[in-house]
Amino acid sequence: MSSAFWLFCVRSTILPDLLLESHIDHFVASSTIWGLLIAGSPGYDHRKVSPPKHSRFAVRQARPKRHGAVRLAEATDALFVMDVDTVEGDRRFVRVVPGDSAALVDALAARVRTAYFDAKAALARLREAAAELTQFDGSHLIVTEAEVEEALEDELDAVLPAEWKKGGRPAQTATQRSELAEIIATEVVTSLFSTVVPASRIASKEIPDQQTRGVDVLGLEHIGEPNLTLVVGEVKGSCESASPPGVIADMEKKLIAVSTDRRQLLQELIWLRDHSDDANARTCMILCSGYLLRKLTPELVLTPILIRTSVSEGVNDYGRFRKSRAIFDFPIRFICVIVEAQDLFDLAVAVYRKARELTAS
Length: 361
What we know:
- This protein is α/β, with parallel strands linked by helices.
- It is built from 14 helices and seven strands.
- It folds into three domains: 1-54, no CATH class; 55-117 and 160-360, no CATH class; 119-157.
- It has helices at residues 3-12, 16-20, 33-39, 58-62, 104-116, 119-133, 145-159, 171-192, 201-204, 247-260, 262-275, 281-292, 320-323, 344-355; strands at 69-71, 80-88, 91-98, 217-221, 229-238, 299-309, 332-339.
- It is globular and about 70 Å long.
């Protein structure tokens, strides 16, 4: 595909200013998204970068293949650390453990609060409103610091899934467990890999006591490079004694559907574009627009993330993600996170209960 054709495509679409601004003359031949992203970067020199091959398998086949498990370093101050990292062709299997199991509940509680609640922004809003109320005549409208603190606690309680106080396990405990798994997964991929997660499902959901929908984690890697990658992460937690646990089949189904159904992948890219943080909004917009125009197809890495307890972990937990070579058409990065707990429900309840303590934030 010629450079002239790319110039024609960009100049004749309704998005030329959005896609490239003043860098249109740097376009190079490419049928994938990398040409758009790299050519749109300041200081880009097409003579120094070879355009990628048309096949989406080109990057994958060029990667060196390593075999066997690598045992990694032990303790650090990180929340999670890699324990074992095994690479088998285009499949990678990583075992992750807490850096400090004794401090895990407190550390996760802090991340839970951040995922749902911006305490500084909430405090600023309340104090601004309190200042406005003093303009009215009436001593009952004067707001004290104690009332501000109480209001903060009320807002935090409202945005978190409802607390489990007594009785059986109500629906919101399933939400807590599910969303704690997503928070753990986001922490792992952003701290242990080069993944950037531009948007949070949890932060953008409307009803706290209902679970999120869509792909659990959408991440980007190699931003600004020819091999920009979309990480598609599906997260499940299981205490089931069977190995692999039953949730593995659900993860397979979800990841196969998203990676093979254009409409489903498009829905995810549109959501990512509409909810991205400011730092990555342009990249997400180009990624989505290129796919909508049927000109660009992102490289995918399917990333099942399984949360297991130390007492339920099994040797066959990877299931067909490791055994089958036929049902997955993309690279796989399977991450198994092992926590020291008897039950994931109990861990989630403890973390969310701690997260409600504003004084710990």
